Amino acid sequence: MPAVDDLSRSLTALAQDSTLMTVIELSKSSWLVAGMVPGIERHPVKKLDPDPVALLNLVSRWRCEAERKERRIERVVLAFEAGRDGFWLARWLRERGIEAYVIHSTSVAVTREHRRAKTDRLDTAMLLRVFLGWLRGERGHCRMVAIPTYEEEDAKRPSRERESLVGERTRIINRMKGALARLGIRGFKPELRRAPEKLSALLTPEGELLPSNLLEEMRREMTRLSLIREQIVAIEQARLVRLQQAPTSRPNAMTTLLARVIGVGLETADMLVQEVLNRNLRDRRAVARYAGLTGSPDESGSRRREKGLAKAGNARVRRGLIQLAWRFLMFQKDSGLAQWYRARTGQGARKTTMIVALARKLLIALWRMVTVGEVPTGVVLRPGM
């Protein structure tokens, strides 16, 4: 397994006199670049068009200014907050010899004034301060985001596209049922294959056929529904082909192993592997924290209370795990985790609270299963595929 990176602090010693530090405040229309250049008293700030080549030229110019002050630049580091632009800029800069980092946006502490001033220039100054603290190896300034490769990012697309298509399918079906309910028609299932054939024969309680405009609208909705259904099937078939073509690759082997757990489908297994289990997370706490399944304590003086789930992680993983936890109770009744859940709820604990705890424990158990081969106690597996 690849070495786990500690993204909470830098493990490289910082020689500030020979390091050029740069941060960027990214936006759709412009980039505001701020730097700390050795040998230069001021902190230069420059506004650029969203152009990576112009950014590279600016960094080269600052390097030349430092060298004119007899400061040899041996290291160039750059950081920006995670956001709309993703990770392409970090990968592009790393290919050109610049240490690029992506700062986790929620890890940067901000002032708690009621109406704090917020401008791009102030944001770059704040990013520069926390980035400097991170480079010094001090904990608590900020956290960095692991920069995925093109292949790792692309591998997430099928599962996310399928989730979007399933949501669109549900919205179309609900719209059709709502339109029919306004005419008093209930019990019609537009998701069935033969629903378009039965649409023209539908009658209202008054014995009237569907109005012409509504009928045409329903036919168009069913056409879209049929197209979405075909696209979902295409995504699922492409996934099977990918698993058959490279069964020994690390993500595919993880997916195949997870799918052997009775109650875990191939779609859920693929989503968990691509979103969380394939990442080089440090320990079980990091796994639970990435899914947002950890608590949010509020303690001050004698006050002790729990505000609920942090929900600071991957919402897609969190939703899938809550659903999987309920299925797990149905298909793995004799497992140790299911017995633990029944024992706690039998003592009076709320089921909705304990299902979240079960989801957290289940995620950690599956993570151990695909990383070190430790099968959860009592979990029944399908025969090897």
UniProtKB/TrEMBL annotation:
Residues 257-332 form the Transposase IS116/IS110/IS902 C-terminal domain. One of its GO terms (biological process) is DNA transposition. Transmembrane segments: none annotated. GO terms for molecular function: DNA binding; transposase activity. Residues 81-182 form the Transposase IS110-like N-terminal domain. It comes from the Bacteria. This is Transposase IS116/IS110/IS902.
